[in-house]
Amino acid sequence: MDIFTTFKVAASALEAQRIRLDTISSNIANVETTSTPEGGPYKKKSVYFESTPVSFDQHLQGSIEKNIKGVKVAKILEDDSPPKKVYNPSHPDADKEGYVAMPNVNVLKEMTDMMSATRSYEANTTTIKSAKRMALKALEIGR
Amino acid sequence: MQPIKPIDLPLLQPEKKPAPVDQAGQSFSTMITDLVANVEQQQEKADMAVQQLHAGNAKNLHETMIAMEEADISIRFMVQVRNKALEAYQEIMRMQV
Q: Helix (H, G, I), strand (E, B), or coil: what is residue A54?
């Protein structure tokens, strides 16, 4: 275990939260998208996290370090809930009755998710700052 | 009939000396050289990270920042080691003979 373990763990969380924010931005950007290459309206995407060991050389790790886990995005899944139907007969993607299938993205929910991702990112940068402060305090011992 | 065995007192046995540690390759100067090489490696890593970020190849901004922080802490540590070594040297030089 070295003093940079905290950095590694926090860095993995920062990357995961950044990917989460990418997904949220994709959802917000496509809130009005009615056609996709796969057909049908855009479907809301959400990330699912998974814990990972910090370093790859498992054999070198002590029993304590085995319990310290980083995080990564395990998968990004589409939400299969039904699309919102909006009556708009002049729309090119409207069906026979004149209804357009709009994406199942809730902008309010995306905004709160975005705030949560930003705060998590901030929390992990604070962890890094804290680890650095501890290391610098340790260097002050000799003074 | 069994013969009387001598009492085996482990505390009275002469202690076995631990095997001498091979210190031939670990002199003070090699330690310092290793340290400097390690710090230089961190600096190079940070340099590479900054270059990649400028070239637009870096995946994440925070990885560059963390590489720079690691380089910063390493060099501060090296400076502390140098201060200590210099202090010890000056202490010896001040010694009355």
A: coil
Residue A37 CA to chain centroid, in angstroms?
24
Answer yes or no: pTM beyond 0.80: no
B66 and A125 within 8 Å at the Cβ level: the answer is no
Report the length, in residues, of chain B. Answer: 97
**What does the pLDDT read at residue A61?**
59
Burial bucket for residue A42 (CB in 10 Å: 0-12, 13-18, 19+): buried
- Which of A139, A140, A141 should one mutate to test binding to chain B, selecting the residue with the greatest count of B CBs within 10 A? A139
The verdict on residue B50 lying in a domain is yes
Q: Which domain holds residue A100?
A: 5-142
Minimum Cα–Cα distance from A14: chain B residue: B62
ipTM for the complex shown:
0.74
What six digits make up the tokens of B60? 């994440």
How many structural domains compose chain A? 1
| C-alpha A1, offset from chain centre | 28
Quote the CA–CA distance of A24 and A9 in Å, as a whole number: 23
| Predicted confidence band of residue B10 (pLDDT cuts 50, 70, 90) | low
Judge whether B71 lies within some domain: yes
Query: Burial of A103 by CB count in 10 Å (0-12 exposed, 13-18 middle, 19+ buried)?
Result: buried
Q: How far apart are CA A100 and CA A94, in angstroms?
A: 4
The single residue listed with the structure tokens 């705030």 is A115
Question: Domain containing B78: what range?
Answer: 30-93
Per-residue DSSP letter, B95: -
Tokens of A2: 């070295």
Q: How many domains does chain B have?
A: 1
Two tokens at B90? 């000056």
